Amino acid sequence: MRKEDKNAIIAQLAETINEYAHFYLIDATAMNAAATSALRRECYKSEVKMVLVKNTLLHKALETLEGDFSPLYGCLKGTTAVLFTNTANVPAKMLKKVAKDGIPGLKAAYAEESFYIGAEQLDALTSIKSKNEVIADVIALLQSPAKNVISALQSGGNTLHGVLKTLGERE
């Protein structure tokens, strides 16, 4: 491969990393063509971009970026595929669903501005809440007191006496 081609690939990888908020490095060494194709289909359904990369080119692309990505350098061995996403937990859930006997295995991940190294971190990555899940939790918490008042009004027969009696019986 010519040096110009390598520089173009490094620039493309750096641009893609900047475009997405989170990325996962997975071990695709033991994957055959059918398994790779199935993983690509799952990625497409989950709006995850999958790219097979040369480790040295990815290493150089990470070096060109702002920030310190040195914890990931040790994971760049074997056949590496990168999963790019804007929702931190989607690739982890997808890998958990698709993985058979640890294939494909998680090498590392950069999610929520933190590094997760090793396959044992997959459970921690699946438990990260997405922005929409956090918003839903906040809305549910905000709605809870209103629901209590409404249920008190309905259980009391919509009378002031019934409401006071119901509220007085609660602790």
Key words describing this protein structure:
single chain; 171 residues; Alpha-Beta Plaits; five-stranded antiparallel β-sheet; 2 domains; alpha+beta; elongated; 5 strands; 8 helices
CATH topology type of the largest domain: Alpha-Beta Plaits
Number of helices: 8
Main sheet specs:
5 strands, antiparallel
Give the CATH architecture of the largest domain: 2-Layer Sandwich
Architecture overview:
This protein has 2 domains: 3-126, Ribosomal protein L10, N-terminal RNA-binding domain (Alpha-Beta Plaits, 2-Layer Sandwich); 131-169. It has 171 residues and is of the alpha+beta class. Helix 1 packs across helix 3 and helix 7 (131-155) packs across helix 8. The longest helix is centred in the last third of the chain and has 25 residues, at 131-155. A 5-stranded antiparallel sheet has the order 2-3-1-4-5. The relative contact order is 0.14. Helices cover 54% and strands 16% of the residues. The model has no long low-confidence stretch (mean pLDDT 83). It is built from 8 helices and 5 strands; from the N terminus they run H-E-H-E-H-H-E-H-E-E-H-H-H.
